[in-house]
Amino acid sequence: MTGVASEQKILKSYSRRAPDLISIKDSVLRSLLLESSKTLNLTHSPLLLSQVMGRLASQRHRFALLSICNEAPSGMRCALETKMVMCSVMEEREALVRQQLKTMTVGFIGAGRMAQAMAKAFVAAEIVTPNNMRASDTMPQMLNIIKKFGVNTTSDNKEVVKNSNLIVLAVKPNIVAPVLQEVSEVMTRDKLIVSIAAGVTLNTLEQNLPRNTRVVRVMPNTPALVQEGASVLAPGSSASDDDKALVCSLFKCLGICEVGTEDQLDAVTGVSGSGPAYGFVAIEALADGGVLMGLPRDLSQRLAAQALLGAAKMVLETGKHPGQLKDEVCSPGGTSIAAMKKLERGGFRANLIEAVEACNITCS
Predict the structure, then answer these.
(1) Distance (Å, rounded) from C-alpha 304 to C-alpha 291?
(2) Domain Pyrroline-5-carboxylate reductase dimerisation, which positions (predicted)?
(3) Residue 152: other Cβ atoms inside 10 A
(4) Higher-confidence position of 363 and 336
(5) Cβ atoms 81, 72 nearer than 8 A
(6) Residue of higher predicted confidence among 51 and 94
(7) How far apart are CA 52 and CA 62, in angstroms?
(8) Are 134 and 155 in contact (CB under 8 A)?
């Protein structure tokens, strides 16, 4: 039986037992369902079932999946019901956060590329209305760009703070302290400061603001400019769980967003902050290799970029370990394993690990 025919048989079997499942388009869920194809019975795999439950997009789908497991042992059924409740609570919280954002005013101190990317993403996701955003900058050309997204603009930082519930600090690290001191007199307890200034600690931020100001520090990366970013946030001493949820919802418009601690941010910088630079070098080198072997430069570069994009997507969407995916590419005695031997001899892995380490040391 071909792979396609086998997949259709598996999905058909699931859809007979729970018709709602056929409408699920989530590629990760699809992959997880197919992983259980040996028995066509999810009840034999509690871990797999838990993964599937966590990926389902609606309560209707959760009940559809639960209907597959009527024969499941009572202990497993209890665990599934608990999982369903947890998912529902998370959904309700996200819905409340999104509703809160509809009426929230967001300000940007600094209207550079990252602020522009955020404003564009917020408008596209309809998570914050343009009229509820305001930006300040000393450079008129930056204000002219961000104004294209419907953002109100000014050269007065205090005006931004006065008229915003959430203020994104998007200025160069060396001017963070004087900017905060400038706006400190108009800061009130109901305002939340979100800093994306690299290397500026929570302690520095809090020391230059009134006591108990709610502060969250975020480490984004440049792919946020194309809504494929990876951001990690660290809450300050006065930030609440609701503040973390709010900031996370905003930065998810730019890609993924995770909650961490400040002592992890240097390592985050080494992996995702500087990671795109490693990727760009890899794409350039692969493209050079293609040119060496006779490919036109533009074709070689497109193929190299798509290869890395596809590889990254497979890691994120299948949930498989990168090593397993690599093994699936490398056939015995084949071309890929021969190439891997060359990379290993050149210290490819060690060089990447040491690059992350060097970045982390520099941050410290």
Answers:
(1) 11
(2) 262-359
(3) 19
(4) 336
(5) no
(6) 94
(7) 9
(8) no
pTM of the complete model: 0.73
Token reading at 294:
């006779």
- What distance in Å separates the CA atoms of residue 215 and residue 195, rounded to the nearest whole number? 8
Three-state SS string over the chain comes to CCHHHHHHHHHHHHHHHCHHHHHCCCHHHHHHHHHCCCCCCHHHCHHHHHHHHHHCCCHHHHHHHHHHCCCCCHHHHHHHHHHHHHHHHHHHHHHHHHHHHHHCCEEEECCCHHHHHHHHHHHHCCCCCHHHEEEECCCHHHHHHHHCCCCEEECCHHHHHHCCCEEEECCCHHHHHHHHHHHHHHCCCCCEEEECCCCCCHHHHHHCCCCCCEEEEEECCHHHHHCCEEEEEEECCCCCHHHHHHHHHHHHHHEEEEECCHHHHHHHHHHHHCHHHHHHHHHHHHHHHHHHCCCCHHHHHHHHHHHHHHHHHHHHHHCCCHHHHHHHHCCCCCHHHHHHHHHHHCCHHHHHHHHHHHHHHHHC
Cβ partners under 8 Å of residue 237, min gap 6: 202, 206, 215
| Mean pLDDT for the stretch of residues 10-14 | 48
Q: Which amino acid appears at position 151 of this protein?
A: V
> Checking DSSP bridges between strand 133-136 and strand 214-219, what pairing results, if any?
unpaired
Residue with tokens 């499942």: 21
d(CA 245, CA 241): 6
Provide the β-strand partners of residue 235: 216
Tokens standing for residue 255: 């890609």
Quick one: average pLDDT of 260-269? 94
Residue 45, token pair as written in the block: 């795999």
In sequence order, the 6+-apart residues with CB closer than 8 A to the CB of 206 are 213, 215, 236, 237, 238
| Residues whose CB is less than 8 angstroms from the CB of residue 228 and which lie 6 or more positions away in sequence, other chains included | 255
Instruction: Tell me the backbone φ, ψ of residue 360, rounded to 5 degrees.
Output: -60, -45
